[in-house]
Amino acid sequence: MSSLIISPSILSADFATLADECKRIVELGADWLHIDVMDGHFVPNLTIGAPVVQSLRKHSKAFFDCHLMVTNPQQWIKDFAKAGADMFTFHLEAIVDPQQLSSSQAHPAVVEAAQQVRAAGMKAGVALKPDTLAELLLPYLQQGLLDMVLVLTVQPGFGGQMFMAEAVQKCAVLRQQFPQLLIEVDGGITAETAVAAAEAGANVFVAGSAIFGAAEPAQVMQQMRQAYAAAARQPAAVPA
Ligand SMILES: O=C(CO)[C@H](O)[C@H](O)COP(=O)(O)O
């Protein structure tokens, strides 16, 4: 099993001191920075866009793990690439109604979006809302079109929600077939809920309130590494 990647969500950081918050959390042991982009349409909340990513890039060399909770994500691929994003994760539901998708045939619009992300020089991720089946991603994963799957363990839109334990079963479905895939869980992840996520096969943990809201964020991240190591039965390791 791969090493754990911890990607604190800056949604729970102090936006007025974002560059300092990013620097601090990386120095305390974060591997990536998770950047939640919301458009007030795909989800009922508004956050930030490519200009903020571009500004942050001047202050940080960290891996920018951008989660686009927006309608028409293709519209922003070039802007995010130019701004310095490393991972561009779009929602499957933002491209096609999942009712029109099958687990045996790739939909051209999803293929095209993933290809556009990679052509722009970023890694391609696809996010699933809690009600969307993991099996719908099999055609794209079998073709090697995706670098990461983000499994939402809350309804997207807000930090600080309760972890939906049943959603992590999707990680197990994917892990069984794709041992090397980056499988990210996002929503209500704490040192405690990380156990179920790790046991199901997730290897990228997003946590906003549990890390930025903690008095000792380094300690929380260390507890997450211990939970992961116990689940994976391997020593905790910080990815290079
Ligand atoms: O994508 C998100 C919300 O849509 C956030 O990344 C997520 O909810 C993290 O926040 P928390 O750890 O506080 O649940």
Automatic annotation (TrEMBL):
Binding of a divalent metal cation, residues: H34, D36, H67, D186
UniProt GO BP: carbohydrate metabolic process; pentose-phosphate shunt
Metal-binding recorded as keyword: yes
Cofactor note: Binds 1 divalent metal cation per subunit.
PROSITE patterns found in the cross-reference section: RIBUL_P_3_EPIMER_1
Annotated transmembrane regions: none
EC number(s) per entry: 5.1.3.1
Coiled coil: none
Necessary cofactors: Co(2+); Mn(2+); Zn(2+); Fe(2+)
Reaction equation(s) it catalyzes: D-ribulose 5-phosphate = D-xylulose 5-phosphate
Alphabetic keyword roster: Carbohydrate metabolism, Cobalt, Isomerase, Manganese, Metal-binding, Zinc
GO molecular function annotations of the record: D-ribulose-phosphate 3-epimerase activity; metal ion binding
Top-rank lineage group of the source organism: Eukaryota
Keyword Isomerase on entry: yes
Pfam families (UniProt xref): Ribul_P_3_epim
Residues the entry annotates as binding substrate: S9, H67, G157, F158, G159, G160, G188, G208, S209
Active site (catalytic residues): D36, D186
Stored HAMAP family: RPE
PANTHER family attached to this UniProt entry: RIBULOSE-5-PHOSPHATE-3-EPIMERASE (PTHR11749)
Similarity remark: Belongs to the ribulose-phosphate 3-epimerase family.
Protein name: Ribulose-phosphate 3-epimerase
Species for this entry: Tetradesmus obliquus
Lineage: Eukaryota, Viridiplantae, Chlorophyta, core chlorophytes, Chlorophyceae
